[in-house]
Major facilitator superfamily (MFS) profile domain-containing protein (Fontimonas thermophila), 118 residues
Amino acid sequence: MVKACGLRHHALHIEIAHCLLAMLAVFASISSILLGAALLLIGNGLIGTLLALRASSEGYTDGVIGLIMSAYFCGFLVGTFIAPRIVMRVGHIRAFALFAAIASAIAIQHALIIHPVS
């Protein structure tokens, strides 16, 4: 009886090891997209923090800082209607390149343009 329990216990360890290897294989296959998403989220958090601190150091009022920071989310909302049309028109690879270029250009312009439009 003890030997049978030992065999079942050993078989359980083997099954767990196989499950872990399968999970690692799945994780390895999606690790690049997870890393990309993590970098985008980190960059988004840093640019949001930088914008608020830069606007505060330039002497913007709290209301203007609030408008600047909420403009991102307004653009995000508008993008949910525009982006699918662009993806269908040019394909997902070219659309991604376009969106990445626009995001990069906007991030650079934050450093170049100091005064809000009056």
